[in-house]
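Hey,

The postdoc asked me to send both predictions to you directly instead of through the lab channel. I've kept everything plain text so nothing gets mangled by the mail client. Protein one:
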Amino acid sequence: MTGSKVFLKKELPSWLPLVLAGLGAVLYLIRAVNYAHTTVSSLDEGSYLIKGLFYLNGTYHPFEPYGPLTNKAPFAFLIPGFAEYLFGAGLRTGRYFSIFLGLLTVLGVWITARRWAGNWMAAFTVWVFALSSMIVKLHARAVSEVIIACMLAWICALALDEKRPLWKIVLASVLASVAIFTRQNMAPLLPFLILYVFWQHGKRAGSWAFASGSIALLIFHLFYWPRVMTIWTPWLPEALTPFLDAFRIPTDSVPIWDPNIDVWNRLNAFFQGIRYHFIPIIGSFFGLILLPPRLADWKSASAMRAAFFLALSFFSLVLMHGWAALASQYESYSCVFCFSNYLGFFDPLGILFFVIAFTYAWNENPIRAVKIVSIFIVILVGTGIGYSLFEFVGNGLLDLPVVPRLRSGGLGFIAIVDALTQGLGMPLVAVKRWIGSSLGFIAALCVLLLAFFVSKRNRTNFIPALVNSFLITGFLLSPILHLGESRPDCAGTDIIRDHEELGAYLAAVIPPDSLVYWDGGNAFTPMIYVPQARIFPPQINDGYTFHIGGDPDVLYRFSHWNGELADRWRAEADVFIIEAKRYADWKDFLTPSEFREFAKPPVSQSCNEGAELRIFQRLP
């Protein structure tokens, strides 16, 4: 490491890493804009945008009974809603605002990395973002992951240093409270930050951090008291908190969203998260196990404290979200394959922990147990990444004639797929998973061999060579690791333009003050452009809030709905917006004698087949 730094100082100009960082930021921006215009809108995105707009213009208020579901802390909706309110309602505003926050995230991480590790490592962090297709694509949508990532990046930029002005520490503490009131799953962040400030900056700064952060969080809760408790009751055991039952949905109904996802798909979701966030997850893990055994071995006490705060925050949040997504059903709309999205909340923490640990505490001669764990992790992660790429195993691999078979004419070969499906009775999905896992295992062995030869040639220890080889390989192979997210959803379509055209059409044909029944897909985004219409708020979350049975009034008060409410709303609605592929369920209801259909909209909200909208109006 020391020799390489001397070489860089002698041979490379000091401005080069700054230029490389700038180029990485430009690449990030270009990719983000491309994804913004080609990515299909999602339920979450439509929810954040329209609820935020409703809350800002006074149509509804957070936690209002019979209003939109405030299932996340209010700022998750109010922040994008504020942008919509200022710059005009629409998908363009929401996504451009998110890209702006993404750039601020990259800048905040770069500033902190540069402060601790210099220009070269700071430039590396920019390129981690720029080459991570899944992260860029996530940042190009109006969702809360990029909002939280931006806050975390700037909390670190404000508070992590040997000496920080008091006003920056106070601002970081308030920002941590804002993060909690944006997503309640950030709850551990503020106490961890306060402990770090006490440890690093002393009693006076710690007291200010505690006071400012706590007062801000208290004010936020008092403003929305008592209905704000609805976001905290899922975290609290019912048996111990019966006094909070008024804020819980009664259990006399059954949510229809109850996915039965087997262990193999949960394993797939886990390794998807790792490959989409390879450097933050794997870099942090190796940073953790390769920490020096003694605190005295750290090159800087302040770096050690910063690293401990980052590691505690990052791994606590990873474990919390891993449990919520992969292992439990913590709420009716639990989402296994959201795990990779959840990791997007705290990428800045993982990246910065890796940078500081690598710079100040890389243990190049760990104990034997750490060596064994390192080798095992490389093999396991390599195999798991291959497993999670099974969907991209094509016919070229399946049909490879590499399995020997004795025939009447002598030795021959048959395709892998035939040998496994016909010979062993394996289903095609299992064959693809086996092939993907095998390729990942082979890739991991290649990394082990590469590290062995590098360590022998350079006369260095094997484990540092292995870890560096694995991380560099993953970094360079980012396009492969991000298969599944790197490809635009609708390459030949401008999703933002189509939403604007579709929204203009809906605004033109739907009469003012019409009551609209929405069955137009799980993304409510097109309705952002129809401010004159009235809606049934629980439908914003589509089927994720639909129940079988239950008291309709109680469900409605909690912003959920059931079949009885759906029937009631069908009888009340003036206009029906139906997704084309859902029309079969409606054709007996939307009869020509009672409804007229408007002309087909000029564009669709998505390039997916059957996503076109059909609009019907009840005849007088």
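Protein two:
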Amino acid sequence: MAVTGFALLVSALLSASPDTSAAGPEERLVQWGLSRRDLDLDPTPNGKAIDQVFVEREEIFPEENPKFFDILHIKTRDSVVRREVLLKPGDTWSADRALETERNLRRIFILSVAKVVPVKAPNGKVSVLVVTQDRWSLRLSNSFTLIGTLLQFLQLTLVEVNFNGWGQSLSIDTTLRLDTFALGQSFTERRLFGSRFSFSEAANLVFNRQTGAVEGTVGQVLVGYPIITLDQPWGFLIDGAWNVRKRRIYRGASVWQLPYPDTSGSERVPFQFDQKELGLDATVTRRFGDGVKVDLTLNAGAYVRQYTPMAESNLGAEQVRWLTANYLPRSENATFVEGIATAFTNEFRILKNLDTYQLSEDYQLGFRATAGARWAFPSPLTTQQFVEVGGAARYRFYRWDDLFTVSASGGARFRPGTTIANERFAAEVINYSPTFEGGRFVTRLMVDLRWNDLNNRQVLLGGSQGLRGTFAEQFTGRNLVLANLEYRTRPLAFVLGTYLGFVLFYDVGSAFDATPLLQHTAGFGMRLLLPYFNFEVLRFDFGVHINNFAQTPGLDRLNATWGQVNDLRPDILDRALPP
């Protein structure tokens, strides 16, 4: 049904008259704002004092389009936009502050487009024009993973992300997995009572899809004073979270049946367990520097992590010990303090047509490096003692329309009187080529390696997870190597600001314990951008498994989800320490 719906949507877009104008949505929005105020751009604003700040807010769809949807939508209030603007009357014009304002506005989901430009003012001064365009706020947002006819994951959220135009988010959340159905709510206020403080909370009940019984609850509460500008010196965050539920690990449509080493060699143990995770921590960050920014962070907290085989599995004592030792995450309680230092160059660039077509994408250029240490010490909660150290580094440069990024990270745990554990190394190289025949080559190579992993983490590879054209979760192992090569065509613009592009791809990778056995897939896909509804593209790929061309049936070669394939990457690549 999802594929049929997508086909109808694409058919409607293709039957519409394409938007052949050279200007993208941001350029059109600037021209609209200038005409509304009868203003002209100032080509030489440097060194001039700011006279006024004008804010023009466009509805969801441009004025020339039907206003039916705008009737159901309350436009973002002027004050919500103005509180993000870092340029004030009396200041001197700063292009860097204008770009940082744009980045802050683009981080707010309720805005699909945001631009800040200098305009002419009397008496030798300059004024600032801020133009924004709303994104549809009352929405049934979704996230899903569809592989062939198997709907592995579906999250539907009925959310008002711009309640009464104030930028508050209220939602009712539903999540459908192969074994459970979760129902909950969330609330987020980025600027509590108009201040720089933020608050958010979320809580969900988890139900078994077969029995309807409650199987757990998941939630989080956050209160903080986030660092939202490059020159803000202080920030803090208090984070409390819980995740108490039953977990079942699937391969395809069935619970993973693990090969128990009995005498017959045919006995299987289901990979399912009870999970109990509780955590509370407080973080303070101090920022220094100008051309190179340095963040020093101190964090203190405690957590409880317990994982036990399900009683419903009816396992014997030896099977319980085997499952716990070889596959379940490590159970442990800890109280800890940690320190993290992060440094990065204060250089940013706005680029387009990389991952999200005509929408602006913000990239920090130059280096970013972070290192940290966590000390778990004895307390009334636990006798646990260990020290974890880690670090991550990234370097990115942009030249001749080519964007190249290399990232690497690693870490380990040291325990008194025993061996080093949780050793991990991950690295990624990704390159966006200059435009070629109107499109662009995107190449990504990634590795994720583990040794002495106390948490028994398993990589599941296949389907939409990087090897398109294979069965879902077809390959498993503790380590990963993956390469993706794509040629992404130039997007075609259609009515209502939508964009459609096409992709040719080649994937090669392996999930393995000791020696990689490389699997190869190839195929084609489509990318659909709906900027008034989502920032990410909708991805549809159809691939074939080259190693075994006939293995995967036709429908199972199709997978669909949100985001580009290079969004899937190891969770530690930008972190100093594991979560």
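Summary for protein two, as requested: The two ends are 38 Å apart (CA to CA).

Thanks,
C.
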